[in-house]
Automatic annotation (TrEMBL), chains A, B:
Swiss-Prot/TrEMBL site (Important for catalysis) positions: Y142, K191
Species classification: Bacteria, Bacillati, Bacillota, Clostridia, Peptostreptococcales
Gene: leuB
Residues annotated as domain Isopropylmalate dehydrogenase-like: 4-352
Gene Ontology molecular function: 3-isopropylmalate dehydrogenase activity
Compartments (UniProt record): Cytoplasm
Protein name according to UniProt: 3-isopropylmalate dehydrogenase
Family note: Belongs to the isocitrate and isopropylmalate dehydrogenases family. LeuB type 1 subfamily.
Pathway, per record: Amino-acid biosynthesis; L-leucine biosynthesis; L-leucine from 3-methyl-2-oxobutanoate: step 3/4
Organism of provenance: Anaerovorax odorimutans
Function: Catalyzes the oxidation of 3-carboxy-2-hydroxy-4-methylpentanoate (3-isopropylmalate) to 3-carboxy-4-methyl-2-oxopentanoate. The product decarboxylates to 4-methyl-2 oxopentanoate.
KW Magnesium (keyword) present: yes
Known EC number: 1.1.1.85
């Protein structure tokens, strides 16, 4: 089979971690007889430097003509003086909207081998953590109307948080489908005691839940969830929430694992199309120094194989190879706090290839 | 001096913890020759049961005619089947708006004596934590226009996040004034890479900062802040943020202390008027069993003495008495995870009175 992948190396450590992910994909291709065809495209700071804008039309077109997108990271100090709406990160918002990527899956997993890196006390996380935050990604306050107006209190700026029933329904379905393949527990997070859009959210999620009688549904307020994530994170299986609450909670969840350099993510459209990227950012401070941890990007490639291409065995093989390298005691610099055999970005790729 | 205090015992454990706080205030009154005059008023579930509405006009009037308000907690299962906008918690929103309580101060302190209760590993919190979240409390998406509309995607609900420059300015001034009395560091939290209201927020905070050249100002995105709170909470001194972000982050911050039963809060209006309440909720599961920890409410009374009445020595005395009881090894049930001499709600009051 031939699989067309649009590749966005992006900025900072993006190109380095992408290189290693492509090496891993190539090896999988050889071993399992698939052909992965890459088209590299520009987005973020790299696109600003080359074209003046962070998301060229050509990039959008090539992504749309591909089966999936693999992205490294975008952004960096260099572009920090640009006005907010011209920054490299805007490319992410543009890609999400243009490609219809409404469902963002962010697993927060505590790897056994890295449990020492967890900032929470061991009694809280004993037995491991395996949460997936399902974040709505193309609606809410991110894409609602925004602007300025005059008020009784003088000049003001505003942003509209808004959800249509349909938007809530489709993300809820993603969450419940996912729960059926996992521990059959969905926590829907909102602020229904204050927000009208949250009350609609809660009502539609309850409707969807009726089609999944085996799945346990809990509703939690966002403030309480931010607490429970620290107090008792093991209660969570699948968390489903709005764009802005998901932004905050998925970052909090990733942090309680202590290993953000290990965490992949998927942003899915209706159908099988998806964009895959590590949770971490572009880390300009260590760019070009062979210090970046490529494992989150390699695991993102594994998610791509699983979710977009339906290649579960191949995805399993990559995940097993990553775990083997960790179990053998190798660590990239970000994971060295508790010692280990240090490896660079490229060596991590070498070791994972060897383990495949 | 005569001080008029409107007292809202509220629901669940509210009345019990309030009782102990009033005993402590009475002792302070005797010792330092002040007269605290209490008027008990209804709000929350207790008001719903008695009057049908969660916030009677009489309550508002009496609060307005007082020098300060001391509140226990509102809410409980009993009223959970009511529609969202008739719930007991709505009384809090009503009081905040009616009384103009725009500045919510939520200290998150790791008490030396309770450091074992902290869910974070000791190396992260070594040396203690002392953060205060300054949350804007009468604006933003809590009080913006909300409703329903038809969209391209069908029926939708919306809520408007909105900030006027003036609203941002007055809360920023509270934060910078507070920082001047503390470690001279303000972290302003927003989502300026996405929200127009956040860009206005960031601009106005920068303007206010010019009047405080000694204070260091950092701007952080809300998602990053949710991470930094776990990764490196010691970097924070004063955090200033919007109503909804403050709701989430202050709860997260309270949780990293591990002792939410100890945390007071103040909600201040222009001038000296304020409402004081514990951060914890009404805990209906332990109501009426002499199990509740009254220390957060007692410390809220101390904040009232300090901020509204300007009685710092008296506030110091209460805080010292609470610490003494902890140092002597006494613990309410919520703090017993690491052992100690168990005390009930009333015994906690007795011991604090004795320590005064
Ligand atoms: C860069 C920013 C616009 C983005 C977001 O808020 O969605 C990022 O924080 C993320 O979570 O992917
Ligand atoms: C009860 C609720 C409306 C309230 C809020 O969101 O402000 C509470 O969570 C709080 O933080 O005081």
């Amino acid at each position: 089979m031939n699989y067309k992948i649009a590749v966005v190396p992006g900025d900072g450590i993006g190109p380095e971690v992408i290189d290693q992910a492509l090496r891993v994909l190539d090896r999988i291709g050889e071993k399992y007889n698939h052909n992965f065809e890459y088209t590299k495209v520009l987005a973020g700071g790299a696109a600003i430097d080359a074209t003046g804008g962070c998301l060229p039309q050509e990039t959008i077109d090539i992504c749309k003509a591909s089966d999936a997108v693999l992205l490294g990271a975008v952004g960096g100090w260099k572009w920090d003086t640009l006005p907010g709406d011209e920054r490299p990160e805007r490319a992410l918002l543009g890609l999400r909207k243009e490609l219809g990527l409404f469902a963002n899956l962010r697993p927060a997993i505590l790897f056994d081998e890295l449990s020492e890196a967890c900032p929470l006390k061991p009694e809280i996380t004993a037995g491991g953590l395996d949460i997936v935050v399902v974040r709505e990604l193309t609606g809410g306050i991110y894409f609602g109307e925004k602007g300025f107006k005059d008020t009784d209190l003088g000049p003001a700026a505003y942003d509209v948080e808004q959800y249509a029933e349909e938007e809530v329904r489709r993300i809820a379905i993603v969450a419940f489908d996912m729960a059926m393949k996992r521990n059959k527990k969905v926590t829907s997070v909102d602020k229904a005691n204050v927000l009208e859009s949250s009350r609609l959210w809660r009502r539609v999620v309850a409707e969807v839940a009726k089609d999944y009688p085996e799945v346990e549904l809990n509703n939690l307020y966002v403030d309480n969830t931010a607490m429970q994530m620290i107090l008792n994170p093991k209660q969570f299986d699948v968390i489903v929430t709005s764009n802005i609450f998901g932004d905050i909670l998925s970052d909090e969840a990733s942090q309680i694992t202590g290993s953000i350099g290990m965490l992949p993510s998927a942003s899915l459209a209706q159908g099988n199309f998806g964009m895959y990227e590590p949770v971490h950012g572009s880390a300009p401070d260590i760019a070009g120094q062979n210090k970046a941890n490529p494992m989150a990007t390699i695991l993102s490639a594994a998610m791509m194989l699983r979710y977009t291409f339906g290649l579960s065995n191949e995805a399993d093989a990559i995940e097993a190879a990553v775990k083997k390298v960790l179990a053998d005691g190798y660590r990239t610099p970000d994971l060295m706090a508790n010692g280990g055999k240090e490896m660079g970005t490229k060596e991590a790729g070498d070791l994972i290839l060897a383990a495949l």
